Amino acid sequence: MIQAAVLHQPQTPLEIMEFEKPPLEPDCIEVRILASGVCHSDWHVVKGEWTQIETPLILGHEGAGVIEKVGDEISDVDPGDRVILSWKPHCGYCEMCQRGHPAVCSSESDDSLEPVFPGSDRTMSQMSGIGTFATGTTVHRTQIVPIEKDTPMGPAALIGCGVMTGVGAVINTAAVEPGSSVAVFGCGGVGLNCIQGARLSNASPIIAVDLLDNKLDMAREFGATHVVNAGREDPVDRIRAITGGAGAHYAFEAIGLTAEPFIQALECTRARGVTVYVGHAPVNTELKLDARMWIQEKTVIGSLYGSARTQVDFPRMVSLYRSGRLMLDELVTREYELGGVNDAFVALERGEVARSVLVME
Known about the structure:
Elements: E1 2-7, E2 15-19, E3 28-38, H1 40-47, E4 57-58, E5 63-70, E6 82-85, H2 95-98, E7 117-118, E8 123-126, E9 136-140, E10 144-147, H3 153-174, E11 182-185, H4 189-200, E12 206-210, H5 213-222, E13 226-229, H6 235-242, E14 248-253, H7 259-267, E15 269-277, E16 299-302, H8 310-322, E17 332-336, H9 341-349, E18 355-359
Parallel strand pairs: 4-8, 11-12, 11-14, 12-13, 14-15, 15-16, 17-18
Antiparallel strand pairs: 1-2, 1-4, 3-5, 3-9, 3-18, 5-6, 6-10, 7-8
Helix pairs in contact: 3-4, 3-8
C-alpha cells in the first residue's frame, strides 16, 4: 500500500488516501519516494488554472527516491538505486527525440506511460505520470535518472523540476554567454534557478525583478547583482538604466501568472536581445504586443523543462551541487511531512518560501 495526497477537484484541500500498488509493467519501475518538492505547477492545478489536467489525481511531479522493484525488461538499474524522477517521458524515436530535444517529445500525450493506482472505488491518475506527493509511485523507464547513493534526497528532488527548468533555460535554451546582461522576472523556485544559471554562465549584470522584498533578498543570495521591486518602480525603465540604456541581452519570464511580465520581459531587451518564456501561464492567457518591437531583430523563445536531456543534465546538476557551485540546500526553505501538503501550498501562495519539500521518511 502507498499513501498519497489527492486533489479531488480544484480549489479544495488535498486529502491523504491509501492505494494498492499497481501491477508492474515490464518497462516500468517501482520507486519509494523519499522527498518531493512543492512546485507552482501543482498550485496551478489546485487553483483550477490548468484546465487541461483532469481531477481527481495524485499531485506532485518533482521527486526523488529509491528503486524498490524493476520490470522484466529493465536491466540497467537495480533495486536500491537512488533516482531523480522526471515528469517528462520521451519515446526516443520521434523527430524531436532523434534531434536531441526529448523535452519536446511529440509522444508526450501517450497515456500508456501513465499508470493508475487501484483505489477502493476508482482508479487514480498521477500528475505528469509520476504523482510524487506519495510514499511510492510506478513510472516508465524514461522517467528515472540514477544518481549517487549519498546524494541528499531533498535537494535531489528539486532537480526533477524547478532546478532543471530554471538553470536549463539559461544554459541550454538560451545558451547565455559570459558577460551578457540578464534580467529575470520572478524570484520563486524557478526564477531563483534562472538567476543561478546566469551566475554559472558568468553573466553580468544579473537583474532580479519581483514584487516581494524577501524574494529579492533571496535573489541576491543566488547571484543577482541588482534587484528591482516592480511594485515600486517600472522594471523596464530600471533594467534599461542598469544596462546603460540599451536593455538586457537576455530576459527570462519565470512567473507564469499574468500577461504583464511576459510583455515586460520582451520590452526590456535590447536590439537582437533574447526573451525566454519559462513560466507556464494559466490556460488562454493572451498577450497584446507591439509588433514594432521585432523591427530591432528581437527573439522570443519558449523553454520547456530547461530543454532538458535528463540522462545528461540531471547528473550534471548533481555534479555542480556536489562541487558547491549549484545552490540546492539553500532552496529548501521548509520541510513538511506528507500530511502537511496543504500547509506547504499556503506558504507557497504567500511567497514565504523558495521551495518547500515533503519528506516521506
